[in-house]
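Archive entry: two folds, one per protein. Generate the first.
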Amino acid sequence: MKNKRLFLLVFLISVPMLWIPKGFSLEKVTHEYLNQTIAQRTINEFSLDSYLKNTLGFTLGAQEPLSAYSEVKKIELQQVIWRWVGEGGIKEDEPEGIPRQIVGRARNQNHFHNPLEPWDQAGLHVFPYAWQSSIVWTQNANQSPGGQETKGVSKRSQA
């Protein structure tokens, strides 16, 4: 009887562990802050502000106000581009619903990158799925328009 209880305890603890990713994500507010900070700085000689001004013709660059519906605040509002980039950090972390998660078709499942692994294995791996690293996925010409989703794929088909 004691062995059965021990087995049950080990089983109940270990099975859910198969579904827990190996790592901790940042909180939404932290992603918002990081995105906003990066959007206002020059990093490795890249500046979003300069890119918006010189390449896309936004006169005010990252300070350009844009009006749109805020999915985070649930209202129509006007805010500068660097603040919209922050809101994008929040939205990227929100799951797209249980059914899309279960069938491996949620956009945020491609939102991970493990720098300690080769790029073709650096994405999120939760049995039975393995998704592309966020770095590989952003360059994937086969993702649906707007980058909405890609289906979870096996390690073999990621290369």
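Generate the second and append.
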Amino acid sequence: MPNCQPIVDELATLEQSRSDYQADLQGASPGEKPALIAKIKAVNDKIAQKQKDLNACLGVAPPPPPPPPIVCPLSTTSVTITTSNPTFPSLTAALGPTLTFTGINHGQVTIDPITLTVGPIAIPSTPCMDLIKVSIAGVTGSFDPVMGDIDIPISLTLSHGLSGGVFNFCSLLPASPSTLMSRLTTGTLPSAVIGSISGVRLQKPTGAVTLVASGTFVGGVTQLAGTACDLKVAGILLCTPLP
């Protein structure tokens, strides 16, 4: 219908903007990625609304509502963080994050935030100790219910609490958070720590799954900035039925 053409044009412009942002994200520095991810999320919301407007203009019946979310706690889960910096050795912790599958065919997935504390550990050549709070936050990603593939953009943040020195001098030193932007995926990623790192697709009917991420920290204490890091989350999804 001719009166729907403006909506079609607006939708095409939004989709082109999303493609441009996604292309920029591939070559972006770690510091640039959070803003680009936020822009992609915002344009996705606009595309979804504009598609509804177009369907209404064309007289197309709205799609059926998506099925209820499937909430799957990860049991017997280990979270392993490995770095290329001997000052910050590998860490394995037993945690129980949750994956929530939503959308048509449950093709969208979000991981609950993960938080743990490391240390305090000594910073070489200084009198300082560093108590590190590890936070892993993810935005909604994709899930392939046929193949079992999962891909979730994440932000890994290390907040530093310095202490030690004469009169606790170290607590006065600046120590901004260290951040790492990556993807938590069941696929294979290049790794600056071990060459490459691989996850494991969701296995049915056992529910076993392994998610991995890799990247380089930006900011924080001097010894950690520029450090490569691998992250592995492995466990068994406890939900019936599996997505």
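Annotation attached to the second fold: The chain has two domains: 2-58, 70-237. DSSP finds two helices and 13 strands in the chain.
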